[in-house]
Amino acid sequence: MSRVAGIAPAMTDPLIRIADALDRLAPPPPDSADPGTHPAYLWHGRALVAARAFRPLPLELLHGVDRQREILQANVERLADGHAAQDALLWGARGTGKSALVKSVIGAAQAAGKRVALVEVVAPLDTLPALFDALAPVSRAFAVFIDDLGFEAASEGRALRSLLEGGADARPDNVRLIVTANRRHLIPRDLSEQESAINPRDSIDDNLALADRFGLSLGFHALDQDGYLDIVRGYAEAHDLPFDSEEAVNWATRRGSRSGRVAWQYIVDLAGRSGKSL
């Protein structure tokens, strides 16, 4: 039996059992999925995990975001082809299709034979250098996706700033970040902080510095009623569902929002009432 240094033999058994129990509670990190094989991954901070089902919407079903789609699609294709590409920030009203567009653009590039994969980050941002190390040697392009990002203070975003540009651990050439956020500048503007600063302009510049690191910034805005109904109509036609415009508007009114997300929720309800699956 092994003996713990400085502890009587009679004490070793309980300590060994405790150590074994701790090992079971904290197992070794799982093996990463092959980064050259799957269309999409999740990054949990210690390993890449292949996404169980990556089924992005066809681009033609995304209405009201034609300009944003064209720009982001061109940028992703440049990345996939090994050309210069930008890190992208998609900002704006909730439910307006930011996340859906990211996934659909990646799916369209893959359908066209492009060597690019999506990696969605579901871990703290301080694990990104380890992710970059894992992706750098792979002969494939990666769009690292951070959904619904926001910081409460400028200091919280400084680590990401260095990863985007200028830091020792900046992302490799085959990796670009695509970030969605409800706020254009990621960090709320604290008027009291600006007023109390010795130089208020310095405080403003610090808050804007992170958003400025993204070479591509695409805004998404709240829909009017016609835009909302256009999205509903597109979904309904794609799934062969008859719909009533007044009912669709009432659905959005009850939820206090007209958005692509609300349009899809209406379609799900309509399909369920019609006895159809989606």
From TrEMBL:
Pfam families xrefs: DUF815
Gene3D superfamilies named among the record's database cross-references: P-loop containing nucleotide triphosphate hydrolases
Protein name: Uncharacterized protein
Protein source organism: Stakelama pacifica
Lineage, broadest ranks: Bacteria, Pseudomonadati, Pseudomonadota, Alphaproteobacteria, Sphingomonadales
